[in-house]
Amino acid sequence: MKATKSPAARTANRARQKRAGAALSATLFCAFSLYIAWHASHESQTRPVDELPMSSARGDDSPASAADADKPELVRRGEYLARVGDCAACHTADPSRPFAGGLAIDTPFGRIYTPNITPDRDTGIGQWSDTDFVRAMHEGIGKGGERLYPAFPYVEFTRVAGRDVLAIRAYLNTVAPVHYTAPANALRFPFNQRWLMILWNLFNFDESRFVPDPKQSAEFNRGAYLVEGLAHCEECHTPRNFMQGLRTTERFSGATQAGWQAYNITPDRAGGIGDWSDDALIAYLSTGVAAGHANAAGPMADVVQNSTQYFTREDLRSVVAYLRALPPVSGGKTRPRDAWGKRAADGITALRGAPVTTVNGLQLFAANCASCCQWTGAGMGTNAPGANDLARVILHGVARKTKDADVLMPACRDELGNGQVAAISNYVTKRFGNPQATITADPVAALRAEPR
Fold it and tell me: Which residues bind heme c 3 per the record (predicted)?
């Protein structure tokens, strides 16, 4: 007959098992930590050497050097590339202090403030060497060896050729130095531990320069270099995994960025831009308006104003050629978003002389929107977007200035209550957009409270 262990013996056995488990966990953690340390120490020895310059698609592969930094043509090229990369958008919180940083970026892990990249020697990058600057762009490592957070898109910038990185540096050396230190980041533990970025990089970062595809045209390769690299389009248009890395299996299929919907830009005809003409795509990137398709607002309006409106026609055509060649992703959509809605605002005449007794979307639209957007909605330039994005537009307005147009829609947050904003949004999306996209007063209140 098998002897039964006493309670004391069972307790002692469980205690031994716990100590053994703890020892094993500690051993595995130490081994993993040693691997991480080894990996970090050997990174510089395993850097890829497949770098090709941006200009290789055009047959110009002459190298750049520090001695070129004073050449006006290099600075002009660097200014153009800085606009392609939209550097000012993130590194300018105060328009009177361009590139001085301080812009707050809210992430699921806390708030990050962008750094000063003016040539100020104390608070900017004035004491950075060219090597320091290239390392930050290519590897996500700062001058002091600290790991940079991927709010700085080095995941894409790693693909940019060294020649172009140095051109950007040459341009930044010419901007006015600003003595300003951004506030400290406010990240929760353990995300405020920069060394953890080593682990994040293992799963989400592949350091490698862009290599043209010999099977594709020079125009395609140029577009691929821009979209995948300096323009970092995936940062907004690709969904993210639980670590906030890019979900590479769903590239360019659309995602939420700063609360706004960044739409699918694959060539799927229902979910993406497959039914847009080349001219419509070029018009949207250069002016923010693609008649009958979309009208840029929110973060995309800033991208158009600060970046894509300055693209050369060659680069715009190259971007379009690349987007056309992407694998189409429907995202479950069965009809294009610009195929929803009607073009007539029925019931306008019935409002004449009618008393205002309830919160009525049509009445509010007629009183607040129709003078610019017209009764038919034609003044909006496109079908209405999702209800959340539309509510943000109503609350915060639109200000988008390009070489060809100055678009201004006044903010109505001080004139309209949450229920009124919801009523207008629902009326417009039902009449001119997807009738299934609705919103109520409580979500509008949350949108109103979002930091601007």
Answer: 369, 372
